[in-house]
Amino acid sequence: MPEPMRLEMREITKTYGNLRAVDAVSFDLAPGEVHALLGHNGAGKSTLVKILSGVVHPDSGQVLIDGVEVSPRNPRHAQELGVALVDQELSLVTVLTVEENLLLGSLRRSTGNSGSTSPEALRALLDDLGLSHVKLSAPTGNLPIGEQQLVEIARALSRDARIIILDEPTATLSELEIAKVFAAVRGLAAQGKSVIYVSHRLGEVLTLCQRATVFRDGKLVGTRNVAELDRSGIVEMMLGHVPESGRQGLAEVPANPEVVTITGLSVPPRIQSFDLTITGGQIVGLAGQVGCGASEVLRALGGLIPEARGTVDISGSRLTLGSPGRVRAEGVFFAPNDRKEEGLFLSHSIADNLVATRLPRLSGGGFIRKSLQSLNVNRLLALTGISAERRGTEVGSLSGGNQQKVLIARGIEQESSRMLLFDEPARGVDVGGRADIHELIRGAVAQGNAVLFSSTELDEILDLADIIVTMFAGRIVSIRSRAEATAASILTDMTHGSEVMSA
């Protein structure tokens, strides 16, 4: 008798009001398999994951684990059934220690220091993920974001789950950290555990997974063996077409562009001396791994690091570092890489978020002029492609891609803007959403703004940047035009920059 599938989800349907988020879709997962779950934002994959992890309940359909029909009532019940979820939004409590976070929510913590929750077992888990230097007693909040993500993964592995769901597990990780996650995932599969891998990084899917299931608009498009697919084939399944590639050469510089000259920028302790000239009308991308210093450069230019020192001139006028309010008044807009913690007002509407940084120009006598606000909101909504009927929707209820569009749109088409800074502008966004966000940024560039962005993803760097500045260990390794750059040369500089600099 053949071995049953580890997981079968049959004809699952979930409706929210008039929206059918999942429409009679089926999905299966074999023992020891790493199976990719793909689709653009809003395609339905997140809803399916929530159903399996007990967060929401389906309207109809069946869920079977190892041939037995189950109905996860809540996340705790799903854990009892052998399901563990590592969500793309970290759920660690940063004031607790690493050990306390690893034990947090574990069903086995009340049984004493035994099994996979003993200090020795937790230590081994961290070591396997390359965190041998991290003490169990260390405050989690003191760890870099990439190491916090690895701790989150270690917590899921400590629960002896049969089904592990990894939702965008590498979005904040460096190439070295990603390699450690891949090794851990392969180790799980070798033990007979099954992994659902949700990612927008198609290269990872092709490298790590055996099968891929694609959703589009709440419906199942199909399931294929990864060996039969390539990147363009996956994209076509996700979108129904292959999107046009980005620009391959330098953009035409508009008349009277802003020119930004950065001299001797210092951000202790990582950035010692950063020099760069940015010409408006061209997009400059900072390429590097997590921790390369690109985020610190952008945050310093955005006025968010009081200790930053150096000279920054925008078309002859001096920028005041260390004060976000003064930097903003001087025409600089900064979009952080963490949209939920730093970028958006999640409990407020799309409309409120879009105009949050331009209220003085929409007000008179201390009151917002509603007609002027409405004009601005409608114009920005048209740019994002989000329906005007959704202007009153809370931003926190949107997909990650639409949240990011709102954040990016807030900073463009402002009369006072001179320099736009985007830290990981398409982080956690699918292929289609990324193309929309890139078009928003290109539209801002056409107005003569100086644009500087950072990304740890080669595809995004090569698609969006006109000038590519590669960073390693807080220093610039190389500066190339898009026409001169290749994926191999950029990746070499991102990962072996110390050798380049010492040559």
Automatic annotation (TrEMBL):
Domain ABC transporter: 7-242, 255-498
CDD domains, sorted: ABC_Carb_Monos_I, ABC_Carb_Monos_II
Alphabetized PANTHER family for the sequence: CARBOHYDRATE TRANSPORT ATP-BINDING PROTEIN MG119-RELATED, GALACTOFURANOSE TRANSPORTER ATP-BINDING PROTEIN YTFR
Record carries keyword ATP-binding: yes
Pfam families attached to this UniProt entry: ABC_tran (PF00005)
Sample GO molecular function, one term: ATP hydrolysis activity
Record has Repeat as a keyword: yes
Full protein name: Unannotated protein
Record keywords, A-Z: ATP-binding, Nucleotide-binding, Repeat, Transport
SMART domains xref list: AAA (SM00382)
